[in-house]
């Protein structure tokens, strides 16, 4: 932002350009007791003619395009801030190349450009072509963004906080590749990991698998790993209060030995990777 | 006829035994249809445990559909959805299928009445003159596929943008999903009669939700007619699913049909695929689905009650409802990772498990919610202005409700005794026990009461589900989804019945996807609800539908005679509504 | 009792279950593009440059719907959804993360193959040692698809000559 708007109290108008409602409800949420953005002087007004800023949501459908354009033109020429709320309006979101979504002909509908085009970006380009002045734009991605995210974006406008993200680029030459080392063969780990996805889901599987691998490492050092692992898992289970995790541990144990046996017997085994 | 009998026997052998009470009733329905129209039925098949498709000649469709819908013995029949499919690559023809259902306590039965339509003569007989509920479906058939409903009273464009060129039908298979041909902007609104004044309503509104455009035709203060131009949020989801996404990816766009009731949409989609492909979902996953769906219903109903309070001038109720709702949102965030319960489902199950600590979180929140909500309900039902303002406003009589196939709390508020959860149990609802509240008055108040009762039922359902939660996997393993299988999935969203139709296709993609949300059936009822009430009632009536967007942003009053334009913004407009409640 | 949050004047962290901004760990990413195939809104791109011999994995947070499918399919746990949520920025470029990896130079024809060096290292780690030795994979993996096919064909022709003199 080159010229920071010196605004103490921003009046906003809410414009939906075909969003799924997720972001719109979060915008209302921001106005209700828990988040109460009126603390920052933000007030929702009933007409774009009164608004300093426009809170926009939605991927910009062709049907909504005309109304949206009119509403932005109806705003007072200064400061005309655009607050793009949600992934859809930042770049078209998951709908980005559907047939009813507005895209400028030159933007193309499939492309390898980045940052990705779509949403409000197209409308702003059109407005600039028509010579309509548009003030600063702030993009708040999220699907939908949490109310805190919206507050954070608007606080940035008001100059209360600084932005935290920046463009990141990494290259093979500078970043060293790290192959994870473990006591167990990688293919077994990956198979167990996939099995666990079907049992506890993607989120919790890594933590559980890590616990299990620690026990396996201990057990494999002993003379009778099978017995030792059983003992360790029994010990672990007695301490663990969550029966679901205990269930996973027991399942992992049997799966682990099943795969091991299959490998040592030289059987064909289907890996899940 | 003999063929049909053979078919039936084959079906009987292959599928479920007719042992259960419900299945017996279903068989009676099926027998009756076969008896009555046996000679007209060309083909007959069962696609899932409660879904059958009969194929007939296209001229026989209206007779069968109307017989079904107007059957005296069958209580809550309804036109659930209509699916048009471009089967030209497969058969060289289009197909239309009217999906009918018997609801109420009596049956678990979906019947698809299908007819094939040749490409060179794309016409079918409209049933709208005899059954108004088919209005939008048939208009959409023209929009998307270019099939002409003959005898349709209102054949205007429904879905596509105003500037979409004539003669381009986006859901046909020869249209690429990302093409977007330009055109000229035009929409034929209804012309006002003498002495009528147009009050355009939208498309932009301040406070809430989506864009939609209503035109109220008023005489003085009284609303005479309403014209609706919506679909500002038409995002071409069906085509994107058919064109770009794989089965697993499509779950995430199905959720984004609606930001408030997203999870029911992805559940309906997943059920449709699972029904079509014969994937068995683990029991634990079904329970988790039910819990998440009920959480969603909780926050959606609280949101609605808050808005009704706001529009009746009871802002303290609005704030309280949204404060309560926030607890549910926090809970949803911790269970599913997103405040909107997004990203929880995949075909075959769910993605996150309910670990022990998450269970206790639910219990805590429910405890708070129970006391908070009880207090809230006491507060609003003892507020005289609220009750007076909601009573006898926006009455939708049972007859019209049935005629327009309205569903969800709107239908139940008008005395229609149905609920997909009870009548066509999906997810874990078959194992759970709950009541379906029905009110007969058909006004804004009874719709609010239905929702209040449903909140209590939802809390009770979650408590049961937590108690009964079984062990096991949460995601089914399946190999491949066979192509060209079809089925529908249905769920009871907070706003009504969601029906998703899926025809599987090759290359891990859906061949045809059709989603129908509850509000699709409910919105056409707005003119009937508004007629005879004043402009000040309009926001309340629209909001009482909970239409995935409240209403209003900017209201423009055009006096036809003097040509004077008065612009009211939503604030003033809502103020009018609030003022009206002060009068009581 | 006041209920209003003090944010943004106090720091807030989202719960650990929250699906926030996705991040690629460049030390773990092998450039297999499993996430690219899984991503519903095409927020992750794979851009191969056969002249320079690089593959770019480009993540745009501004397109991401935070479904965590990428996290679910990633074989190396390189991409993760953090619980960090403060992504607002006036510049869309801030939302982009690029990981550039080197493609394998084919030992046969000298052109770049359509897989990265890291992918090969990972594959060699997964495949059991016996098979690597038996099939002499150590050399074969550094051939591009065309050369591999050619080698197979040559091998078959040679073998058939032996059988049918």
From TrEMBL, chain A:
The UniProt record lists the keyword Calcium: no
Keyword Coiled coil: no
Superkingdom to which the source organism belongs: Archaea
Keywords carried by this UniProt record: 4Fe-4S, Iron, Iron-sulfur, Metal-binding
Family matches, as SUPFAM superfamilies: HydA/Nqo6-like
NADH:ubiquinone oxidoreductase-like 20kDa subunit domain span: 20-157
A Pfam short name: Oxidored_q6
Single GO MF annotation: metal ion binding
Signal sequence annotation: none
Cofactor entry: [4Fe-4S] cluster
Alphabetized InterPro entries for the sequence: Complex_I_20kDa-like, NADH_UbQ_OxRdtase-like_20kDa
Family stated for the protein in its record: Belongs to the complex I 20 kDa subunit family.
Protein name: Hydrogenase
Origin species: Thermococcus paralvinellae
From TrEMBL, chain B:
Subcellular location per the Swiss-Prot or TrEMBL entry: Cell membrane
GO molecular function: NAD binding; NADH dehydrogenase (ubiquinone) activity; nickel cation binding; oxidoreductase activity, acting on NAD(P)H; quinone binding
GO cellular component: plasma membrane
Cofactor(s) annotated in UniProt: Ni(2+); Fe cation
Major localization listed first in the record, in broad terms: membrane
Topology in the lipid bilayer: Peripheral membrane protein
Pfam families referenced in this protein's UniProt entry, alphabetically: Complex1_30kDa (PF00329), Complex1_49kDa (PF00346), NiFeSe_Hases (PF00374)
Domain of life: Archaea
Annotated residues for binding of Fe cation: 261, 551
Residue span, NADH:ubiquinone oxidoreductase 30kDa subunit domain: 54-178
Ligand binding (Mg(2+)): 238
Entry's transmembrane regions: none
Keywords from the UniProt entry: Iron, Magnesium, Metal-binding, NAD, Nickel, Oxidoreductase, Transport
Chain ranges of the NADH-quinone oxidoreductase subunit D domain: 316-482
Classification via InterPro entries: ComplexI_49kDa-like, NADH_Q_OxRdtase_suD, NADH_quin_OxRdtase_su_C/D-like, NADH_UbQ_OxRdtase_30kDa_su, NADH_UbQ_OxRdtase_CS, Ni-dep_hyd_lsu, NiFe-Hase_large
Binding residues for Ni(2+): 258, 261, 548
Protein's UniProt name: Hydrogenase large subunit
From TrEMBL, chain C:
Domain 4Fe-4S ferredoxin-type as annotated: residue spans: 20-50, 55-84
Statement: the UniProt record of this protein carries the keyword Transmembrane helix: no
InterPro entries: 4Fe4S_Fe-S-bd, 4Fe4S_Fe_S_CS, NADH_quinone_OxRdtase_chainI
Name listed for the protein in its UniProt record: 4Fe-4S dicluster domain-containing protein
GO molecular function terms attached to this record: 4 iron, 4 sulfur cluster binding; metal ion binding; NADH dehydrogenase activity
Entry keyword Protease: no
Annotated Gene Ontology cellular component terms: membrane
Biological processes, Gene Ontology terms: aerobic respiration
Pfam families: Fer4_7 (PF12838)
Keyword field: 4Fe-4S, Iron, Iron-sulfur, Metal-binding, Repeat
């Amino acid at each position: 932002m080159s010229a920071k708007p010196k605004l103490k109290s921003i009046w906003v108008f809410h414009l939906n350009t075909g969003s799924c409602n997720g972001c719109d409800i979060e915008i209302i949420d921001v106005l209700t007791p828990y988040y109460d953005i009126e603390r920052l002087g933000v007030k929702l007004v009933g007409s774009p003619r009164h608004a300093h800023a426009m809170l926009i949501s939605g991927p910009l459908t062709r049907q909504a395009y005309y109304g949206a354009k009119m509403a932005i033109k109806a705003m007072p020429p200064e400061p005309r801030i655009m607050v793009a709320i949600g992934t859809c309006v930042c770049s078209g979101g998951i709908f980005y190349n559907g047939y009813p979504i507005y895209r400028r002909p030159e933007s193309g509908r499939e492309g390898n450009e980045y940052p990705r085009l779509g949403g409000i970006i197209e409308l702003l380009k059109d407005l600039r072509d028509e010579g309509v002045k548009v003030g600063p734009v702030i993009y708040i991605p999220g699907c939908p963004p949490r109310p805190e995210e919206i507050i954070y974006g608007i606080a940035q406008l008001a100059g209360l906080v600084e932005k935290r993200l920046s463009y990141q680029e990494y290259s093979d030459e500078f970043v060293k590749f790290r192959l994870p080392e473990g006591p167990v063969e990688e293919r077994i780990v990956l198979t167990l990991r996939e099995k666990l996805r079907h049992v506890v889901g993607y989120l919790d599987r890594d933590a559980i698998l890590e616990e299990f691998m620690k026990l396996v490492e201990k057990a494999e050092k002993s003379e009778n790993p099978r017995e030792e692992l059983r003992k360790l898992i029994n010990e672990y289970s007695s301490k663990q209060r969550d029966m679901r995790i205990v269930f996973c541990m027991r399942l992992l144990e049997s799966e682990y030995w099943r795969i091991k046996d299959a490998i040592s017997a030289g059987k064909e085994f289907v890996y899940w990777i | 006829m003999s063929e049909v009998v053979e078919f039936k026997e084959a079906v009987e052998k292959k599928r479920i035994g007719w042992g259960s009470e419900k299945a017996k009733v279903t068989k009676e329905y099926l027998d009756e249809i076969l008896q009555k129209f046996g000679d007209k039925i060309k083909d007959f098949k069962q696609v899932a445990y409660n879904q059958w498709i009969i194929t007939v000649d296209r001229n026989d469709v209206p007779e069968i559909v109307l017989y079904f819908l107007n059957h005296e013995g069958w209580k809550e029949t309804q036109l659930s959805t209509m699916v048009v499919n471009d089967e030209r690559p497969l058969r060289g023809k289009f197909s239309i299928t009217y999906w009918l259902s018997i609801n109420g306590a009596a049956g678990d039965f979906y019947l698809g009445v299908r007819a094939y339509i040749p490409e060179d003569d794309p016409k079918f007989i409209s049933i709208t003159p005899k059954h108004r509920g088919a209005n939008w479906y048939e208009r959409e058939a023209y929009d998307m596929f270019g099939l002409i409903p003959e005898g349709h009273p209102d054949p205007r464009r429904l879905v596509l943008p105003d500037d979409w060129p004539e003669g381009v039908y986006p859901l046909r298979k020869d249209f690429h999903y990302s093409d977007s041909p330009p055109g000229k902007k035009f929409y034929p609104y209804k012309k006002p009669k003498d002495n009528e004044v147009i009050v355009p309503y939208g498309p932009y509104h301040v406070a809430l939700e989506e864009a939609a455009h209503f035109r109220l035709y008023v005489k003085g203060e009284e609303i005479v007619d309403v014209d609706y131009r919506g679909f500002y949020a038409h995002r071409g989801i069906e085509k994107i699913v058919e064109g770009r996404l794989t089965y697993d990816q499509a779950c995430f766009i199905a959720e984004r049909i609606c930001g408030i009731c997203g999870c029911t949409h992805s559940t309906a989609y997943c059920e449709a695929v699972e029904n079509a492909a014969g994937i068995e979902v683990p029991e634990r996953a079904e329970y988790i689905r039910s819990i998440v769906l009920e959480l969603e219903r909780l926050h959606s109903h609280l949101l609605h009650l808050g808005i009704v309070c706001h529009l009746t001038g009871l802002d303290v109720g609005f704030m309280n409802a949204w404060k309560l709702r926030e607890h549910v949102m926090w809970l949803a965030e911790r269970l599913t990772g997103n405040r909107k319960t997004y990203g929880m489902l995949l075909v075959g199950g769910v993605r996150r498990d309910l670990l022990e600590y998450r269970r206790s979180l639910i219990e805590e929140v429910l405890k708070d919610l129970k006391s908070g909500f009880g207090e809230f309900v006491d507060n609003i039902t003892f507020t005289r202005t609220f009750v007076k303002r909601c009573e006898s406003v926006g009455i939708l009589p049972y007859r019209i409700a049935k005629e327009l196939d309205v569903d969800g709390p709107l239908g139940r508020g008008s005395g229609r005794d149905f609920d997909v959860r009870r009548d066509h149990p999906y997810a874990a609802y078959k194992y759970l026990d709950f009541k379906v509240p029905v009110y007969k008055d058909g006004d804004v108040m009874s719709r609010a009461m239905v929702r209040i009762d449903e909140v209590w039922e939802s809390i009770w359902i979650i408590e049961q589900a937590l108690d009964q939660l079984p062990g096991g996997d949460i995601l089914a393993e399946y190999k491949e989804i066979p192509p060209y299988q079809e089925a529908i999935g249905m769920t009871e969203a907070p706003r009504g019945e969601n029906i998703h139709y899926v025809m599987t296709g090759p290359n891990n993609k859906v061949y045809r996807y059709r989603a129908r949300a509850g509000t699709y059936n409910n919105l056409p009822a707005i003119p009937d609800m508004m007629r005879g009430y004043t402009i000040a009632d309009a926001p309340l009536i629209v909001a009482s539908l909970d239409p995935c967007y409240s209403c209003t942003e900017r209201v423009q009053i055009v006096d036809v005679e003097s040509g004077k334009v008065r612009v009211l913004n939503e604030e003033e407009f809502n103020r009018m509504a609030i003022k009206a409640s002060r009068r009581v | 009792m006041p209920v209003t949050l003090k944010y943004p004047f106090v720091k807030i962290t989202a719960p650990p279950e929250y699906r926030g901004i996705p991040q690629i760990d460049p030390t773990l990413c092998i450039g297999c593009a499993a996430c690219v195939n899984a991503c519903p809104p095409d927020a992750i791109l794979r851009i191969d440059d056969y002249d320079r011999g690089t593959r770019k994995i480009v993540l745009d947070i501004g397109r991401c719907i935070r479904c965590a499918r990428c996290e679910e399919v990633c074989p190396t746990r390189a991409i993760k959804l953090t619980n960090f949520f403060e992504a607002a920025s006036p510049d869309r470029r801030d939302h982009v993360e690029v990981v550039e990896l080197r493609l394998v130079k084919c030992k046969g024809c000298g052109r770049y193959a359509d897989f990265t060096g890291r992918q090969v290292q990972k594959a060699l780690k997964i495949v059991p040692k016996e098979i690597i030795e038996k099939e002499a994979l150590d050399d074969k993996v550094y051939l591009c698809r065309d050369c591999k096919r050619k080698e197979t064909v040559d091998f078959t022709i040679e073998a058939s000559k032996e059988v049918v003199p």
